[in-house]
Write a structure and sequence with these properties.
The chain is mainly beta. The chain is 12% helix and 37% strand. The longest helix has 28 residues. The chain is globular. It starts with a helix and ends with a strand. Helix 6 packs across helix 7. The chain folds into 7 domains: 127 residues, Jelly Rolls (Sandwich), CATH 2.60.120.260; 126 residues, Galactose-binding domain-like (Jelly Rolls, Sandwich), CATH 2.60.120.260; 124 residues, Galactose-binding domain-like (Jelly Rolls), CATH 2.60.120.260; 145 residues, Galactose-binding domain-like (Jelly Rolls, Sandwich); 239 residues, TIM Barrel (Alpha-Beta Barrel), CATH 3.20.20; 231 residues, no CATH class; 81 residues, Immunoglobulin-like, CATH 2.60.40.3080. Keywords: Signal.
C-alpha cells in the first residue's frame, strides 16, 4: 500500500512539474513585443517635463530642471496593458551619477519589484537589461534624483492575457473553482452547504484563483479547512510569487471535521491571480472568503476576529444578544482588521464581564506596541456587563489591532471606537518663544536588532553625515528605545529633522513616545522627501517658518522615546520644549573581589565525562582532565532530557544513554561547580516546523507560536521545572508534578525514577546565544522576545502558566543565568531591552527594583583584532588587554550597577583557536609557538576578568572539535584528545593551585600590570606585560620587610610552576616582566610567609624604559634623573656575557635619553645594565633580523 502510494505521488509530481516547466519555457521563448506607456505621473511637481518618454525620437529629450528639482521623486510610467516584462532598454545620453543613481521598479498594484539601478555608465548608447524571469507589472516606476535619469525607457515582454472566471472580493470562493492547480483532487464534502472540497493536498501543491478586488485595503481572510493529523501551512501568493499571507492549519478531528481559520490580508484593487500554496499539505480545503476590515469609528463584535489564540465563544445575555468571547486565559488574544477613517485620537470602549478575577486587557497594534491597558473589574457574574474606556491614538488606513489578555478570566462582547467630532489634526499652535533645545544623550538609545553602530549620529550636530546602523540585520523594521531616567521630564513642542539625501516615503521613520501607562503614541514621521534641509514632524503638510516644526499638541508624560525605522534616518534630530534633568543619583560601582578559582571554568559535554560505549559510569582519565578546572558549563541539549514529549530522562537519558546523576555527583565531590546550559530544540518540537525551517537552534517554541508571548515557551519552562526539581536543593517539591519516562529501551536498560532535591545544581542557563543573528529570524529573538522567554523559564511568567512551570517554582534558591549574549561587542542594547520588557510586563519588587526574570548577567566575547567577537570580520585573536574586552565588561557592569543592584556578571564563552586559518587564532610571537601564546592569553584572560570585576569565567572549550579545521571555535580546546593538557590548561591548573582561594584586591601598576590577591591577610602578586609583541619591562616590587620572595613562572607539561627563591633588596625584588604572567609571594628570613605591603616604590628599576623591544636596528634607553647623578649604560650578551657597548653619561641632566645601535649584532637576547649611584636596573632586549 505504501509503496504504491509513494510511487503514485512521485509520478504525479513529476508529470505536473514537467507540465509547468513546459509552460514556463513557452512563456520565456516567445518573442518579446514592445509594451508602450499610456500616461506618466510624478509624485511631486518639480518643474520637469517627462512627456518625451512617450516618444521614441532621440532628438526629443527630457529637459533638465534645476530650481526645485534637487530631491528624490517617483515617476510612474503606466503601461498600456498589464504585461509580463522580460527586458528593459534605457537610453544613456550623457552624464554619470554613481552617487545618486536612478532606481527602476516594476509596479503590480501595490507591489513594488526592484529591477535595477541606472547610473549613466555610457554615452549616447542603449543599456539593455534582460530580466532573469518575467515580471508581471502594470507600470514602471523611476525613483530619481534631480536630472539623473535615462533619456528613454522602453519595455519589452508579452501582454498578460485577460483574466477569466473572475470572482469578486469581498466574497466567498469555493475551493474547487480554481483556474489552475498542481496535484490536488476534489471529493464530495459533508461540510455545511455540501458540494465539493479539495483534497489529496501534498507539500508544494497549489490552486490559482482569478479575483477582482473592489478596493485596495486590508481584508479579513477565512479558510475553511479540515485536518486529521498533519501540520498544514497555507501561503497566499500573488502572480509574481510574493507571499501575501501565511497561516497554519489546525487539527480538526478528521478529514471532514471542518473548522474556520482566520487571518488578515492586504490586497490591491483590480483583477489579479491569487495562489493558495500548500507549504505543508495533508489537509482538506472547502472554501475561502474575504470580508472588508471594520470601519473606525464603529463597533466590532468580539467573535468577529480575524485570528485568535485560546478563546471560545458562547451565547451572551447582554442587551445586543448574539455571542460573546469567553474562556479567556492569561496570554490569549484576538486580532481585528480595521480601517481607520482618519488619523487621530479615539475613545476605545470594551464591553466586558468578570465574575471573580482581576483581569487586565491591553489593546496592541501590529507592531505589538501597547496602545492602552485596562483593569477588568469584577462585575458580579460572567453575564453582568460593564463598559471600559480608554483614549488611544490611531494612524489612518488599514491595520490590525489585537485585544490581549495580560491577565485573563473575563468575558468580552464587543469593542467600539468613537470620537467627539472630527479626527483631523487640530489647528497648529503658535510658535513658542520659550522652547529650548532638549538635551539627548545619544548613548542612552538602544536598538532591538543586531546592529553594529549606534544612533549617535542623529544627535551630534553634524547634518552632513548619513546615519548607518550596520548591515545584515535580521529584522527589516525595528524599534530603538530612549528611556527617561527617574525625575527626568520633557515637554516636546517642536521637532526638527534634517533631511540629507534619499527618499523613503514607503518606509518612513517614525518617532513615538511611550507614556507611564505604557501607551505608545506616534508624534512625528520622517520620509526623506526633501533635500539638504530641515523638515518638521508632518511630511504631508506644506508649512513654512517655525510653524512647520510645531507639534499639533505639546507632548508630555513621556517615559520613553521610540524610533521605528526600516533603513533610513535623517542626519540629525532636534527636540524643543522644556526639560527637567534627572536627579543626580548615579554612584560608582563597587570594586568586586572574586576568588581566582572562579576565573577557571570550561565548557564541556556529557561525553567529556563518560564514554559512549559505557555512558553510565565516569571515565577516570577524562575526569582527571576535567579536574583542571573549578567550574563546568554543561552544554546540554533539551533532546537528552525529553526525547519524547512529557517523558523526562536523566539516568539514563533516552537520547545517548548518558548518566547525568553520576556526572553531577562526581563534580560536586571534586569541588567543581556546574552551570547547566539547557539549549536547542528537541526533535518532537522541531518536527512542527516545515522541513526547510528545521534547525536545532531555532527559537524554542512550536512552529507558528508568537515569539513575544511567555505562553509560547511553556514546554521549555516545564522541562526546566522538572530538571531543577530533581537536581536543585528543594526537597519539598510536590511529587505528583514530576514525570519520568520509566520505559526500557531494551532488556536490561536502566529505568528512570523520580528523584527530588539532590542538591547538585545551583545555576541553570536559559538556552545559548538567543541573539544569534547569523541563523536568521527563525533562531533570533529580540531582547523583548527573549525576556518573555525568560519570564516563562524563571517562574512561569509570575506563576500565571500553571503548576509545574518555571525554575523558581521548583527551587527558589537556584540562580537563573541569561543565555550568553553574543551581540555585546556592539553594546549592551540587548540587556537594556530585556530590562525594559520586565519593567513593563513584570513590574517592580517591593524594594523598588525591576522584577527581572534572571539572577546572573551572562555574555560571550572572543577578543579579536576587529572587535567583531564571533562575526568573522577579524583576521586573528587579540590579547585580552589589547582588545575591546575591557570596554564591553565595563558597560555591562555599569548597567548591572545602575539598574540591577550590582547583579553578578559572567562570561561563559571566551578563548582562542590555534589553527592558523581561524579568525580567532592565537599567533606565534617571537620565539613563542602558537600554543605558548594561547597559554599566555588564556591565563591573562582569567587575570583580566578578575581585575575587571567579572564574577565567573568559562573558557570554550575542553576539547577541540577539529584542530585541523580553520573554522572559528574548531581548535579552541584546552585538552588534547588523549586527555593530556595543552599548555593553556597547564597554566590554568598551576594558577588555580596557587591562587585558587585568593581574592583579587587591587592593581598597583598599569604597565607592567601588577595585581595583588589576598587571602587571610597574605598577598600574592601577579605581574604581566599587557602586550602581544614580545615586549618586556622591569618592575621593582615592594614586599615590605620580606627578606626573600618566591617567584612562580608557569611552565608547560607539568602541574606545578617553576619556582625561584629570590633575595630582596631591603624588601624590594626587581623583576623582568614578560607577556607570560609571573606570581610573587613574600618570605621572611626564616622562610615563613609574611604579610606584605601593597605599596610600590618608584626606583631606578621602575623608571627605566627600553624601546622598541624586540628590535632589529636600535634601542632607546630613557629614564628620569631628578638627582642629576652620572649614569652608566652597559650592553652585553645574555648568554655569553660578552660586553658590546658601554656608555658613560657623567653630566646627566634631569632626563637621560640614549640611543644604542644594534644593527651589527647577531640576532639573540641581550641585557642592558643601567647604573646610577647605588641603584641598578636591568632590561632584557631581543634582537631580531
Amino acid at each position: 500500500m505504501y509503496i504504491f502510494f509513494h510511487k503514485y505521488w512521485i509520478m504525479k509530481h513529476f508529470l505536473l512539474t514537467f507540465l509547468l516547466l513546459v509552460i514556463t519555457i513557452k512563456l520565456n521563448a516567445q518573442t518579446p513585443s514592445r509594451i508602450y506607456f499610456s500616461t506618466i505621473t510624478a509624485s511631486e511637481n518639480t518643474g520637469q517635463d517627462y512627456s518625451s518618454w512617450l516618444s521614441d525620437d532621440l532628438t526629443s529629450l527630457v529637459p533638465n530642471a534645476w530650481e526645485n528639482n534637487f530631491k528624490y521623486v517617483d515617476v510612474t510610467l503606466k503601461l498600456a496593458n498589464k504585461s509580463y516584462i522580460n527586458r528593459i532598454s534605457l537610453y544613456d545620453y550623457e552624464g554619470v551619477f554613481t552617487d545618486k543613481p536612478a532606481l527602476i521598479y516594476a509596479l503590480n498594484g501595490n507591489e513594488k519589484i526592484f529591477l535595477g539601478s541606472f547610473d549613466g555608465p555610457g554615452y549616447m548608447s542603449w543599456v539593455n537589461w534582460q530580466l532573469p524571469a518575467p515580471v508581471l507589472a502594470d507600470a514602471i516606476c523611476i525613483h530619481k534624483f534631480s536630472n539623473n535619469i535615462p533619456q528613454k525607457v522602453q519595455v519589452y515582454g508579452q501582454q498578460a492575457p485577460a483574466l477569466t472566471n473572475l470572482q469578486p472580493v469581498p466574497g466567498k470562493i469555493e475551493a474547487e473553482s480554481y483556474v489552475n492547480m498542481q496535484g490536488v483532487q476534489t471529493e464530495g464534502t459533508s461540510d455545511e452547504g455540501g458540494g465539493l472540497n479539495v483534497g489529496w493536498i501534498n507539500d508544494g501543491d497549489w490552486m490559482d484563483y482569478n479575483v477582482s478586488v473592489a478596493q485596495s485595503g486590508l481584508y479579513n481572510l477565512t479558510f475553511r479547512t479540515a485536518n486529521g493529523y498533519g501540520n498544514g501551512i497555507i501561503q497566499v501568493r500573488n502572480e509574481n510569487g510574493t507571499v501575501l499571507q501565511s497561516t497554519s492549519v489546525p487539527l480538526s478531528g478528521g478529514w471532514q471535521g471542518w473548522t474556520s481559520v482566520r487571518t488578515t490580508i492586504a490586497l490591491a484593487q483590480g483583477n489579479q491571480t491569487l495562489r493558495i500554496h500548500a507549504i505543508n499539505g495533508d489537509f482538506n480545503f472547502n472554501w475561502f472568503s474575504f470580508t472588508p476590515a471594520t470601519s473606525i469609528p464603529g463597533v466590532i463584535q468580539a467573535e468577529n476576529h480575524s485570528g485568535m489564540y485560546g478563546i471560545q465563544t458562547e451565547t451572551t445575555s447582554d442587551t445586543d444578544g448574539g455571542l460573546n468571547v469567553g474562556w479567556i486565559n492569561d496570554g490569549d488574544w484576538m486580532d481585528y482588521a480595521v480601517n481607520v477613517a482618519a488619523a487621530g485620537a479615539y475613545t476605545a470602549s470594551f464591553r466586558v464581564s468578570n465574575s471573580w478575577g482581576s483581569g487586565i486587557l491591553q489593546l496592541r497594534n501590529a507592531a505589538d506596541s501597547v496602545l492602552a491597558t485596562l483593569s477588568v473589574p469584577q462585575t458580579g457574574g460572567w453575564q453582568s456587563w460593564t463598559t471600559l474606556t480608554a483614549n488611544v491614538t490611531l494612524p489612518a488606513g488599514g491595520q490590525k489591532l489585537r485585544v490581549y489578555a495580560l491577565v485573563g478570566d473575563w468575558n468580552f462582547n464587543w469593542l467600539s471606537f468613537s470620537t467627539n467630532g472630527t479626527v483631523t489634526p487640530p489647528p497648529h499652535h503658535p510658535v513658542s518663544s520659550t522652547a529650548v533645545k532638549i538635551a539627548i544623550d545619544p548613548k542612552r538609545w538602544y536598538q532591538l536588532n543586531n546592529v553594529s553602530n549606534g544612533l549617535n549620529g542623529l544627535f551630534d550636530g553634524n547634518t552632513q553625515t548619513q546615519v548607518n546602523t550596520g548591515w545584515g540585520k535580521v529584522l527589516a523594521n525595528y524599534d530603538a528605545y530612549y528611556p527617561l531616567k527617574p525625575g527626568e521630564t520633557m515637554r516636546i513642542e517642536k521637532i526638527k529633522f534634517f533631511d540629507g539625501e534619499g527618499s523613503m516615503k514607503d518606509k518612513p521613520m517614525t518617532l513615538s513616545i511611550i507614556t507611564d501607562q505604557w501607551q505608545r503614541i506616534p508624534i512625528a514621521t520622517f520620509t526623506g522627501e526633501e533635500y539638504n534641509g530641515w523638515v518638521g514632524p508632518y511630511p504631508d503638510r506644506q508649512l513654512s517658518g517655525e510653524a512647520k516644526y510645531m507639534l499639533d499638541t505639546p507632548i508630555t508624560n513621556a517615559r520613553y522615546l521610540v524610533i521605528n525605522a526600516w533603513w533610513g534616518y535623517p542626519t540629525e534630530i532636534e527636540l524643543y520644549g522644556s526639560y527637567t534633568p534627572p536627579a543626580a543619583t548615579t554612584t560608582a560601582a563597587p570594586q568586586k573581589s572574586p576568588e581566582f578559582k572562579h576565573m577557571v571554568g570550561v565548557n564541556a559535554f556529557e561525553w567529556d565525562f563518560e564514554d559512549g560505549q559505557n555512558p553510565t559510569v565516569i571515565n577516570e582519565t577524562k575526569m582527571q582532565a576535567v579536574k583542571t578546572f573549578s567550574g563546568v558549563r554543561h552544554y546540554m541539549d533539551w533532546e537528552k532530557l525529553e526525547s519524547t514529549e512529557g517523558g523526562y530522562t536523566y539516568n539514563p537519558t533516552h537520547s545517548g544513554g548518558w548518566n547525568y546523576d553520576v556526572i553531577y555527583e562526581r563534580c560536586k565531590a571534586d569541588g567543581i561547580e556546574v552551570l547547566a546550559c539547557l539549549k536547542t530544540v528537541p526533535n518532537w518540537m522541531l518536527n512542527t516546523y516545515p522541513a526547510s525551517e528545521r534547525d536545532a537552534e531555532n527559537v524554542p517554541v512550536r512552529y507558528g507560536k508568537d515569539f513575544a508571548e511567555p505562553a509560547s515557551y511553556l514546554e521549555q519552562a516545564r522541562v526546566a521545572f522538572q530538571y531543577i526539581a530533581r537536581y536543585g536543593s528543594n526537597p519539598s517539591v510536590d511529587p505528583s508534578l514530576l514525570r519520568v519516562n520509566s520505559s526500557q529501551r531494551w532488556t536490561g536498560d536502566g529505568i528512570n525514577t523520580v528523584k527530588i532535591g539532590l542538591g547538585l545544581i545551583k545555576y541553570i542557563e536559559c538556552d545559548n546565544e538567543r541573539d544569534k543573528w547569523w541563523k536568521g529570524r527563525k533562531a533570533y529573538q529580540t531582547a523583548r522576545e527573549y525576556a518573555a522567554n525568560l519570564s516563562a523559564f524563571y517562574d512561569g511568567h509570575k506563576n500565571t502558566m500553571g503548576a509545574g512551570v518555571g525554575v523558581k517554582n521548583a527551587d527558589p534558591s537556584v540562580q537563573v543565568v541569561i543565555g550568553g549574549m553574543a551581540s555585546v561587542y556592539a553594546g549592551d542594547d540587548y540587556l537594556r531591552g530585556m530590562i525594559d520588557w520586565c519593567r513593563q510586563h513584570r513590574g517592580y519588587r517591593p524594594d523598588g527594583s525591576v522584577n527581572v526574570c534572571w539572577d546572573v548577567i551572562n555574555y560571550h566575547l572572543y577578543p579579536d583584532n576587529a572587535n567583531s567577537s564571533q562575526s568573522g570580520q577579524s583576521t586573528r585573536g587579540a590579547a585580552p588587554e589589547k582588545s575591546a574586552a575591557a570596554d564591553v565588561a565595563a558597560q555591562l557592569l555599569k548597567t548591572a550597577h545602575e539598574q540591577l543592584n550590582d547583579m553578578p556578571v559572567w562570561i561563559t564563552e571566551t578563548g582562542y583557536d590555534v589553527n592558523q586559518g581561524s579568525p580567532l587564532k592565537a599567533i606565534p610571537i617571537g620565539p613563542k609557538s602558537v600554543l605558548q601564546t594561547q597559554a599566555d592569553w588564556i591565563l591573562r584572560t582569567s587575570l583580566f576578568y578578575a581585575r575587571t570585576g567579572i564574577d565567573k569565567v568559562f573558557f570554550y572549550q575542553l576539547y577541540d572539535d577539529n584542530i585541523n579545521n580553520p573554522i572559528q571555535f574548531g581548535s579552541s580546546g584546552l585538552v588534547n584528545p588523549d586527555q593530556t593538557r595543552k599548555p593553556a590548561a597547564d597554566f590554568l591548573l598551576q594558577a588555580k593551585n596557587l591562587l585558587g582561594d585568593f581574592q583579587y584586591k587591587q592593581t598597583l601598576h598599569a604597565d607592567p600590570i601588577v595585581d595583588r590577591y589576598e587571602k587571610n591577610g597574605k598577598s600574592i602578586y601577579a605581574l604581566v606585560v599587557p602586550d602581544e609583541v614580545g615586549r618586556t619591562a622591569t618592575y621593582s616590587l615592594n614586599l615590605g620587610n620580606a627578606a626573600k620572595a618566591l617567584v612562580y613562572t608557569p611552565q608547560a607539561g607539568t602541574a606545578t610552576m617553576h619556582v625561584d627563591t629570590v633575595a630582596t633588596n631591603q624588601g624590594t625584588v626587581t623583576l623582568t616582566v614578560t607577556e607570560t604572567p609571573v606570581f610573587v609571594k613574600a618570605l621572611d628570613v626564616s622562610g615563613a610567609r609574611v604579610a606584605v605591603s601593597p605599596e610600590a616604590v618608584e626606583t631606578l628599576a621602575t623608571t627605566v624604559k627600553v624601546y622598541p623591544n624586540p628590535t632589529s636596528e636600535y634601542v632607546q634607553v630613557s629614564l628620569p634623573n631628578p638627582s642629576l647623578q652620572p649614569v652608566s649604560i652597559i650592553l652585553f650578551d645574555a648568554q655569553a656575557g660578552t660586553l658590546h657597548r658601554q656608555i658613560e653619561v657623567p653630566q646627566a641632566g634631569i632626563a637621560v635619553n640614549e640611543r644604542i645601535d644594534l644593527s651589527r649584532l647577531a640576532p639573540g637576547a641581550y641585557v642592558i645594565d643601567v647604573k646610577r649611584g647605588n641603584e641598578r636596573a636591568f632590561r632584557k632586549v631581543i634582537k631580531v633580523n
